[in-house]
Design a protein that fits this description.
Helix content: 40-55%
Strand content: 5-15%
Shape: globular
Distance between the termini: 16 Å
Largest sheet: 2 strands, parallel
Number of strands: 4
Order of helices and strands: HEEHEHEHH
Strand order of the largest sheet: 1-4
Number of helices: 5
Low-confidence stretches: 142-147
Structural class: mainly alpha
């Protein structure tokens, strides 16, 4: 998961997207320390909250859900998404740095997000919305809630 609920504290900055949002706000650059071609399924924390509320409310039909967006992105793709949103917010172009020697293509796996969509009605725009909210909250150092 990634995103901001409440104030950034604890392990907030250990999450890849949260960390690079903080880096771009502070240093006008993103440094990808591992292979930029690694694919991950980035799941907004607001979607996790929705799923927890539904399950705890007893309205879920299945006993187990794999919470996924179903849209894996490379670390580099995510960095480019964040740099684009940062430029819209700040007017500044950010650098994305990584060691090209670490760049290796991996096979990826596609997962069916149907059960997750049925549970919370995945909002594909929530990814961009959560990135914008995280950047804005870090930029202004205020507590922005997703709900």
């Amino acid at each position: 998961c990634f995103g901001l609920i409440g104030s950034p504290s604890g392990d907030f900055y250990k999450l890849y997207i949260n960390q690079i949002c903080n880096d771009i706000i502070r240093n006008n650059q993103i440094i990808i320390k591992s292979n930029p071609m690694i694919k991950r399924d980035f799941f907004p924390v607001g979607n996790l909250q929705d799923a927890i509320e539904i399950v705890l409310g007893g309205s879920s039909k299945d006993p187990v859900y794999n919470l996924i967006s179903g849209k894996s992105k490379t670390l580099l793709e995510v960095a480019k998404n964040i740099a684009f949103e940062y430029q819209l917010i700040s007017g500044f172009e950010a650098k994305i740095l990584y060691d090209q020697k670490k760049e290796k293509t991996f096979s990826s796996y596609d997962f069916d997000a149907t059960l997750c969509q049925n549970l919370i009605g995945l909002d594909t725009e929530n990814y961009t919305f959560t990135i914008k909210n995280t950047l804005l909250a870090l930029k202004s150092k205020i507590d922005l809630k997703l709900k």
